[in-house]
C-alpha cells in the first residue's frame, strides 16, 4: 500500500481515506454474512443478503428490507468489506462483473479516477480538472515501483520509461476507450511526464530516446485523428 504524504491537496484524489479503511464497516466480520450482487435495471447490480435457498432459486433481502426471489445463475458473490475501493482489482477474492463495476464506481465517487486491473490501468473521466498532475506529484512517481504509489498514469509511464532504459527495448502505452473517455488527455499526460523525467537525466542518449518516443506518440495521435 502506498504511503500517504502529509498536507497535500491532491491526497483525496489519490489515496483512500484512512477513516474509511479503519472504519467498523471495513473491518466487519464477513464470515457471518451471505452478501451477493443481483441484477438491477437502474443500478446494473444491487447488494442483497441470502435468506433462503431452494433448488435453483434463492430468496434474498435487499437493503430496503424487501425480499425477492432470483435464480442462482443471476447472483454474483460479493467481496469482503476490506476489499472495498481496492487499488488493484486483481486482488479481489470474487472477480466478477458486479464486483469490478462496484469497485470502480466507489473509487470514482471518492475522487479516485485511476484503478489497476492487473497490468492495466482503468481510468474514469472526471470531466473536471484534478490537482494530481503537478510538479510535486510528478516527483512523487519518479523512480517508484507501482505498489509504492497510488494508481496513476504516471506510474504506468514511469514503469515503461525505466523498462526502456534498463532493457534497451521499445515500450508501448496504449490508451483506449470510447469517445470522450479521456484517451487524448491521458496520452498528453504520458508525454508530459516523459518530458519531465527525461530532462532530469544527464545522458543525451536518454533524452534523444524520449524525444523520439514523443514524436512517435504525436504521429500515432495524428494518424488516429486524436489531434
Structural description of this entry:
With 227 residues, this protein is α+β, with helices and mostly antiparallel strands. It has a domain at 102-223: Kinesin motor domain (Kinesin, 3-Layer(aba) Sandwich). It has helices spanning 18-21, 97-109, 135-141, 153-167, 183-199, 204-223, and strands spanning 35-40, 44-54, 57-62, 67-71, 76-77, 114-117, 120-123. The strands form 2 sheets. A 5-stranded antiparallel sheet has the order 4-3-2-1-5. A two-stranded antiparallel ribbon has the order 6-7. Strand 3 (57-62) and strand 4 form a beta hairpin. This is Myosin, heavy chain 11b, smooth muscle. Residues 84-227 form the Myosin motor domain. ATP binds at residues 177-184.
Assembly status: single chain
Taking the sheet with the most strands, its summary is: 5 strands, antiparallel
What's the end-to-end separation, in Å? 37 Å
Tell me, briefly, the overall form.
Answer: elongated
Query: Rg, please?
Result: 21 Å
CATH superfamily membership of one domain: Kinesin motor domain
CATH domain topology of one domain: Kinesin
- Going by helix content, strand content and strand pairing, the class is alpha+beta
Element order: H for helix, E for strand: HEEEEEHEEHHHH
Q: Strand order, main sheet: write it out.
A: 4-3-2-1-5
CATH architecture label of one domain: 3-Layer(aba) Sandwich
Tell me the helix content.
Answer: 25-40%
Q: How many individual β-strands?
A: 7
How many DSSP H or I helices? 6
Bin the strand percentage.
15-25%
Low-confidence stretches: none
CATH top level of one domain?
Alpha Beta
Return the average pLDDT rounded to an integer.
84
Protein name: Myosin, heavy chain 11b, smooth muscle
Family: Belongs to the TRAFAC class myosin-kinesin ATPase superfamily. Myosin family.
GO molecular function: actin filament binding; ATP binding; calmodulin binding; microfilament motor activity
Keywords: Actin-binding, ATP-binding, Calmodulin-binding, Coiled coil, Motor protein, Myosin, Nucleotide-binding
Amino acid at each position: 500500500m502506498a504511503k500517504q504524504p502529509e498536507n497535500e491537496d491532491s491526497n483525496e484524489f489519490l489515496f483512500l481515506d484512512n477513516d474509511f479503511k479503519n472504519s467498523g464497516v471495513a473491518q466487519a466480520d464477513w464470515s457471518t454474512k451471505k452478501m451477493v450482487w443481483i441484477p438491477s435495471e437502474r443500478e446494473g447490480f444491487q447488494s442483497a443478503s441470502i435468506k433462503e435457498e431452494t433448488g435453483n432459486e434463492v430468496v434474498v433481502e435487499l437493503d430496503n428490507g424487501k425480499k425477492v426471489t432470483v435464480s442462482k445463475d443471476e447472483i454474483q458473490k460479493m467481496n469482503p468489506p476490506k476489499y472495498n475501493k481496492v487499488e488493484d482489482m486483481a486482488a479481489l477474492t470474487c472477480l466478477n462483473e458486479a464486483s469490478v463495476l462496484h469497485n470502480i464506481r466507489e473509487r470514482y465517487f471518492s475522487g479516485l479516477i485511476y484503478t489497476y486491473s492487473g497490468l492495466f490501468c482503468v481510468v474514469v473521466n472526471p470531466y473536471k480538472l484534478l490537482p494530481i498532475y503537478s510538479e510535486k506529484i510528478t516527483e512523487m512517481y519518479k523512480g517508484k515501483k507501482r505498489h509504492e504509489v497510488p494508481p496513476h498514469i504516471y506510474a504506468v509511464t514511469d514503469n515503461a520509461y525505466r523498462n526502456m532504459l534498463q532493457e534497451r527495448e521499445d515500450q508501448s502505452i496504449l490508451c483506449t476507450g470510447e469517445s470522450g473517455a479521456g484517451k487524448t488527455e491521458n496520452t498528453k499526460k504520458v508525454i508530459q511526464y516523459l518530458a519531465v523525467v527525461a530532462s532530469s537525466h544527464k545522458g543525451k542518449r536518454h533524452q534523444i530516446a524520449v524525444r523520439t518516443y514523443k514524436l512517435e506518440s504525436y504521429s500515432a495521435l495524428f494518424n488516429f485523428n486524436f489531434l
